[in-house]
Amino acid sequence: DRRQRQMCIRDRNKTPIHTSPRYLWKDSLVVFEGYSVVTDNPAMLRAAKQDSSYFCEIYALKRNELIHSYFPKKEAAEFYVTNLEYVYQDTFCYYYGLDRTIYQLLPGEKKVRYRFDMGKYNRLQTMIDFYEEQKSGVLHEYLSLSMCNETDRYVIGKYDFKAKEYIFIYDKRTGITGCLLYTSPSPRDAHES
Predict the structure, then answer these.
(1) How far is it, in rounded angstroms, from Cα 58 to Cα 38?
(2) Which alpha helices (H) appear in the chain, and where do they start and end?
(3) What is the dihedral of CA 117, 114, 104, 92, to 10 degrees?
(4) Global pTM?
(5) Tens of pLDDT, residues 139-171
């Protein structure tokens, strides 16, 4: 829109925002998340390794200024990783797929909240592996988190493994994790109810 472009041109000291807004956080910050390039093109992978942007950026709402950046994209350029976010009790939590950790993001710092131990499947999938898997149809043994959230007692999430989805529930009080195979209802089941 023309008015927005004029405002951006007039305000040259403001930081341009290149990603989509994800959360209004603590009434004074807007949190944005960016995504990495998914490609098997060697030239694009080289360019991604030079990317100076971040997966998670926090801007001052009133001043439209970048105030904090977390997780440089170039660190994860050659990997196919999933990053997720959620808010728990007014705390912004971010799962960074490169190191399999949920962080609590605070102004100017990040604190480890939970680390995931994927056991023998704790290796990361490279972009090349991802595209080979897509072309060949042969599924490799990688775990990929696709959803995560938290309550007072549990950390709950969903992960993908060999084209199947699983639900995990971590009990914060006991330290025990349970896993279930997730099966979505078939269209026939939906019509029967």
Answers:
(1) 24
(2) 2-10, 42-48, 127-136, 187-192
(3) 90
(4) 0.76
(5) 777 788 889 999 999 999 998 888 889 999 999
